[in-house]
């Protein structure tokens, strides 16, 4: 029993219905501040504002407050109870049943319906998404679930694809045996989507220059792209992101090794001269685990994933990536690349070309001990630059580059020793090349003519161009995507896509030296019709100005069977 009632019954109410009543009275009649009312009657500011809103819209009724010590129970007629049971058997939720009863003029709360269902022996329904309940945005299409398919399922089908251009690369993919590359890397898969399907899904998006995989939503209805990957449609963003993070360093190293072995097998490059350079891939998301590294294009240090690029100087193909390098690991990356290179190509002794900040003099000494030639820059100080004016003699050389603006610089050649380096180095000081300060080249190659040494180093800008292309077309710098992709996997896929674009360009008369954006814009971009007949796939491309160049390609000399589709025959037609 409660004690005698006094003023506290009104100023400090206990029952919830009365607290709400007194709070609203204090707010609307006494005009007390919201903060004071909320504290006095035990509400948060948000709850008080909601209470005022409900009262204004007549959603609170104080005409029949419940009796003290008990809660009201709405009486439900037999007819209404039968309706509730019938609708639940149709798998409708309590909220949906409330809405249906409201349309018939029967106002019953969700809680009352839940009580009736419990009394009738029904359990609560599990939580369902709007997709499962069919209550998606009006008119919105829901993409299919990605699953592996066979040509038999598509026999006789004709598809129109906005990304049909990816099939131009299929002969070169077969030539590089990418299906074998995936198997050699032992990439994981699942029951509905194999490792090859996932790999081809990522590769198809890369070949289209899709701005990060978060934009895969633009392609999830394209059955032609799905067919390219051996699926009905491409996997959705979350599936792609989850898959990329399921790959560890061992998977990605095996993937690189298997791919580069096939590149060397085809003689696409020899790796005689390799350009090396670092690039910081910026990241604007969770930066807690990222270090700051120098970004030359921005002229400052930023948080990001430090990545090493290795490029064949002759073919300009990217041969190696090492991503997410820590600051204390950077100096030894040249030795890590040497280990990788010897695992895939033991017949070639390469010459490494890089700038002065890539590694230490101690590691230069280690390269020399392993009979690896290198060309690098010496770290120059003020005294070193001042001494240049007193050096003699200077000789004009001719660098054999057709497009070089200053082909005849002055050079001074000497032999030097450096702290941390065991042995002597050949130093070539270069000036007269439109730079304010002279360049100090150092190399352990005492045999190659000085013109070739300077010329080979001068072509190191090619790796920087390769990085710029990876950023511009393959969106290597766009790691701020809400759908995250593992950095190392992304750069490996960039390497493979870049090689495929190079292979296609070499077949196009007059476009052999064009970059990926140009090839995509003039040849790969655009719609096409895909028809499946038995064990053959016919891709017909719409009229375009450059179709005669594509028709002139000797497609008959390239593989026309698709290994990942059990050897299905591919035919390309250009209207």
Give me the secondary-structure topology.
Elements: H1 8-11, H2 16-28, H3 34-41, H4 45-56, H5 78-89, H6 94-103, H7 110-119, H8 130-133, H9 151-154, E1 158-161, H10 170-175, H11 178-185, H12 195-207, H13 223-228, H14 237-245, H15 249-265, E2 273-282, E3 292-295, E4 300-312, E5 318-325, H16 333-344, E6 351-353, H17 361-369, E7 373-377, H18 382-387, E8 395-396, E9 410-416, E10 425-431, E11 439-443, H19 450-458, H20 461-472, H21 487-507, H22 516-524, E12 528-533, E13 536-541, H23 547-551, E14 561-562, E15 568-574
Parallel strand pairs: 2-6, 6-7, 13-15
Antiparallel strand pairs: 1-12, 2-4, 3-4, 4-5, 7-11, 8-9, 9-10, 10-11, 12-13, 14-15
Helix pairs in contact: 2-3, 3-4, 6-7, 11-15, 12-21, 15-21
What's the average pLDDT? 83
| Sheet of most strands | 10 strands, mixed
Tell me, briefly, the overall form. Answer: extended
> How many runs of DSSP E, i.e. beta strands?
15
Query: How big a fraction of the residues is strand?
Result: 15-25%
């Amino acid at each position: 029993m409660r004690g005698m009632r006094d003023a506290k019954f009104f100023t400090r109410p206990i029952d919830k219905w009365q607290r709400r009543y007194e709070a609203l009275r204090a707010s609307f009649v006494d005009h007390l501040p919201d903060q004071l009312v909320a504290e006095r009657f035990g509400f948060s500011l948000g709850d008080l504002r909601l209470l005022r809103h409900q009262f204004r819209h007549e959603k609170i009724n104080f005409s029949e407050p419940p009796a003290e010590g008990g809660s009201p129970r709405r009486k439900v007629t037999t007819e209404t109870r039968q309706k509730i049971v019938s609708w639940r058997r149709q798998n409708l939720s309590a909220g949906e049943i409330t809405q249906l009863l409201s349309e018939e003029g029967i106002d019953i709360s969700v809680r009352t319906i839940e009580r009736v269902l419990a009394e009738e022996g029904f359990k609560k329904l599990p939580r369902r998404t709007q997709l499962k309940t069919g209550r998606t945005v009006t008119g919105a299409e829901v993409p299919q679930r990605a699953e592996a398919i066979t040509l038999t399922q598509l026999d006789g089908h004709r598809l129109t694809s906005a990304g049909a251009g990816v099939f131009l690369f299929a002969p070169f993919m077969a030539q590089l045996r990418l299906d074998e590359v995936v198997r050699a890397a032992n990439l994981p898969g699942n029951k509905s989507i194999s490792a090859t399907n996932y790999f081809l899904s990522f590769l198809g998006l890369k070949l289209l220059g899709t701005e990060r995989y978060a934009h895969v939503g633009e392609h999830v209805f394209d059955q032609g792209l799905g067919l390219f990957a051996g699926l009905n449609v491409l996997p959705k963003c979350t599936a792609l992101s989850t898959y990329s993070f399921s790959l560890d360093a061992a998977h990605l190293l095996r993937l690189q090794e298997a791919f580069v072995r096939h590149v060397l097998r085809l003689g696409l490059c020899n790796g005689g001269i390799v350009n090396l350079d670092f690039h910081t891939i910026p990241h604007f998301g969770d930066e807690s685990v990222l270090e700051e590294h120098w970004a030359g294009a921005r002229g400052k240090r930023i948080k990001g994933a430090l990545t090493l690029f290795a490029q064949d100087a002759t073919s300009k193909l990217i041969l190696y990536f090492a991503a997410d390098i820590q600051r204390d690991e950077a100096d030894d990356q040249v030795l890590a690349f040497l280990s990788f290179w010897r695992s895939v190509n033991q017949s070639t002794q390469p010459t490494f070309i890089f700038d002065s900040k890539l590694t230490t003099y101690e590691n230069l000494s280690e390269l020399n001990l392993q009979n690896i030639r290198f060309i690098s820059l010496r770290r120059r100080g003020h005294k070193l630059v001042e001494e240049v004016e007193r050096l003699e003699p200077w000789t004009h050389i001719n660098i054999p580059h057709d497009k070089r603006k200053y082909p005849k610089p002055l050079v001074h050649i000497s032999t030097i020793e450096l702290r941390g380096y065991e042995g002597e180095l050949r130093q070539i000081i270069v000036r007269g090349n439109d730079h304010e300060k002279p360049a100090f080249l150092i190399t352990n190659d005492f045999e190659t003519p000085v013109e070739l040494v300077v010329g080979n180093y001068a072509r190191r800008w090619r790796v920087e161009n390769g990085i710029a292309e990876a950023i511009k077309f393959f969106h290597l710098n766009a790691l701020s995507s809400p759908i995250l992709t593992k950095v190392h996997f992304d750069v490996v896929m960039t390497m493979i896509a870049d090689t495929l674009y190079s292979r296609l360009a070499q077949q196009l008369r007059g476009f052999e030296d064009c970059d990926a954006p140009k090839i995509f814009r003039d040849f790969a971009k655009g719609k096409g019709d895909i028809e499946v007949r038995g064990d053959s796939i016919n891709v017909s491309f719409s009229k375009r100005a450059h179709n005669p160049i594509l028709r002139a390609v000797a497609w008959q000399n390239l593989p026309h069977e698709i290994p990942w589709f059990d050897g299905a025959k591919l035919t390309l037609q250009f209207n």
